[in-house]
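Risk register update: the risk that structure generation would not scale has been downgraded. Supporting records follow, first protein first.
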Amino acid sequence: MLQLLIVDDEVHAVRGIRAGVQWEELGFSGIHEAYNIRQAKEIFSAHKIDILICDIEMPEGDGFQLLAWVNEHSPETESLFLTCHADFKYAQQAIQLGSLDYMLKPVRFTELERTVRKAIGKVQKEKEKQQFAETYKRYYHLWEMHHPIFIERFWQDLLHRSIPSRKDHIQELLAKQKIPYDDTMRFLMVMISVQRWHKELTLREEKIMEYALRNSLEELSTVKRNDGLLVQVKSGALLAILNVRDFKSATGYDELAGDLRAYIDACNRYFFCDLCCYVGMPTPLEDMLSMYESVTVMETQNVTRSNEVLLMSKLRRGSDRIPLPTMDGWAKLLRLGCKRELREEVTRYLDGIKKVEGLDAKLLRGFYEDFLQMIHHVLQDKGLRAHQVFSEMLLSKQAQGITRSVDDLALWVNTLIDVVVGHLHAAQESQPVALKVKGYIAAHLNEDLSREDIAGYVNLNPDYLTRIFKKETGLTISEYVLQERINSAKEMLVKTDRPITDIAYEVGYNNYSYFSKMFKKATGYNPQDYRKSNQLVL
């Protein structure tokens, strides 16, 4: 819990601050008061203060002197000044001393609470960094003491195909090396795979934290009781091989799953990572290689579930029934630079497939390839070369990593959309104003188009835009909008059987009578007669 210190020589000011904010709801368990610097220092000596709210002018020294002392003796404390002095030099000095904010009395308590929340965020982030540093330091020393970790050579050779997985050959090798395994034993394989680290780690830090994961896994009661052996199979992935000759299926799985769930919670909290545990089925020694391959497939195909224990016996598959999206509409949005709308549609699809039980990486790879193909087509249509737009991004991110999970794919897609739309906008800057206006009108034809909205899109004054557009096209903007709406309506009347009221709405008219009037004025026919005469001709 957090500790707060309020320092002000005015008693009513201190009490007002204390009463004006729900400190307990913000996570403070201790609220301390001081009316001069001497009292403040005494409180710092007795308590670990997280956040300091301080006045500037006080007896026995000012707030700047106190903050300088705090920076030296309690550098992790976040400090805020609350004063009556609207003096730039004071504010400048506060910033130089590292104060988070400089607020003037009387302060609104909502503003004070917002600033305190910001300070809490910084305090918590610093505490998390310190916790990580302490955890890393502890396991670094353990790693130094026990490195290299000796893995049973037999299992390494078996899983890496250095020895044939035939029963006779295995028995011969066991006898030769005096390994106490026999053909009545059954082994249960559990793969523990890190999905992501909450922090960006160096390669060395990652190795140390993997050792921390391994060290904690060795302490699980089910691992100890079943003579568990741990094998590092790749970066971020461990195998626990349990001797389960006496394994009771129902109770054994329940106990193991409970231990693994507790292990996952601990890893989230102390080792700053998300992971999943993939549990195979009891298997004789000669079938362990096949089981290892099956568990590896489980791990590879999991793209939606995180921080869970997944049992092979309950595994379901379902992605073959999920269709990939048709991306023609997405390509149109991309061509028009509608980034927000495109993101919303992609997010809606990806959020939807997250809920499908049995979803695997096959669908994500298909989505990745189709989406990339759609991007290439749009860039080609716009006269842009793909390698100039995002070559560095693609080189730095391999498809295997992008399709590791729905969340990883969504992050990559959103980044790619940002990059591509940015280049498209840059390319459009060189287009004539009229061409950009026509594109905007085409994308918003069914909306209430105003001259001001269109002018805002091209960043021009409405009157100036009107003159430019008329000069380049020979039409006013309103005449062009009417022309496009009528042309679009004519096409739908002839080529579709949609109700005329729907067509009117599709081209921006909510009032059918007004649509009919404008259509007849432009074509000489009302919509019904136009449809009949043209369909007869066809």
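Supporting record for the second protein:
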Amino acid sequence: MGDFTGGLVIALLLFLLFIGACLFLSMWASPDLRVGDEFFRVSEDKRLSTRMTGFAYSGDIANAAAVMYLVGVVAVAGGDGLFVALAAALSPLLMRQWLAKRLAGAGGRSFGETVARHLPPGPGRRAAGFALLAATVPLVTAQFQPLGDTAQMVGITDLETRQLLIVLMGALIVSCAAIGATRGATVLQMAKMAGLVLIAPLLGLLVLIRFGGNFGSIFDAADRQRSGSAGSGSYLELGQLFGNGPVGFVDLAAFCLCVLTGAAFMPYLIARFTDAPKPADARRVAGVGFAVIAPMCAAAALIGFGAAALVPHEKLVAQGQFGGNIIARLAIALDGGEDGLGKWLLFVLCATFLMVLAATSVLLLSAAASIVRDLSSGGAVAKPEGRKSDGTTSVSAGRARLIMVTIGGVSILLAALTPDVSPQFWLIVSYTVTTSSVLPLVIHGLRSDRPMSAAAMKRCVYGSTAAILIVTFFSPSVSGTPYALFPDLDWNYWPFHSSVLIGAPVGFLLARPRRGDRPTRGAAVPQAQAETPFPTRAG
């Protein structure tokens, strides 16, 4: 562990003070603990405007793992990373052009009630709830893993100590999320995006200043770091992520497709559009999200270039095939190149903690709402939240807090057991499930001419999830490569890192209606319930 003297002690105290401020914000914004009505949603008179909702939507997309992953993949893969960054930037635009107008006014108080609003409680909603959990739990796990990476940056290299830090910091984050509920998540999400809007351009500007505003010098320095000699122009060449053969290019295309559709259609993002009164409002929300995310992705690419130019290449590749906590490494380089808690690293650590906290709050709220509304009691409609006659906490709010803590605990355990596994593994699993299971549910479930039956929902979710698990198990992400989940074992028979090439076709094929499916007419959700605001929206 590092030497806790002088400036390091002050830096650590400032970091702890920042953590305390985040906890205070969660408690300050928390709804009355006796009232469950505002746990999952804000009241009608406190809704955000369209622009603010779009700003919050951009914050939902820019979770901690996704931001670090994007910077890391640009740093280690050059030209390939630019294509991944472009896919991430275009994801809100895809939502705007494809589904936003169809989601407007869809209603529902959970993901299952949105895509299966024409079905009674039962198997259809349970399948939708399972799809949300399958996409959410890996993404929550990915949020906690950077906590162990940052511990190494300040000199904590012992495995047990890093695992303990993940558990302790993760428990604090989950506690903040459960206390703050939707209003707390809203405050944290806004604070996070305000910080990112300031920090990302600032780091990019620092990189440009370091190289005199010359992009060519940045690329030359990145190439020298990679080759250890005079620049050869190889940094921006394609094929550095998966290889320059046909298999490598197909893998890159599948990877970009996974990022494009996964980032756009994560189930917890659907909440931003279902409460929009008109299709034009929903499209405007996605447009604002694109206007925020696109410059952020450009800044992330510039930061990735700076990391490739300033951080020794061996430290970049030590983070894994897709890069890891590259932003922290860049901050160390800007502080002078020595590991430790310098001023820029402290700045980045505070931003990282806030990003993890904000993203985790929204994700856990979404998962808890789905369990309470879709999976509990066979998918039956839960008892409405609100104050009971004696003024005590409503049952659903108390259950929601317990469920948030449980899901958070499972994710913390997964992250602590895999501290050296790249968080991008969990991120891609989440995006693949979204593309293969969630997207078919949204597309077919919102059809008005022939709504999706419960049998089709079950086939789509359980069939595509099984296909994803089987293909992923035999992929290079699990075994047979140095950065796999099990690097010392080898049952790698599927050549691609993402299973989306199998999972997505399986999901869409199984979601198609069949002749034997039971009709769903006459099973619509009551209008009062359909118009109830979606509970998991963080604003």
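The chain has one domain: 31-381+392-530. On this basis the risk owner (M.S.) recommends closing the item.
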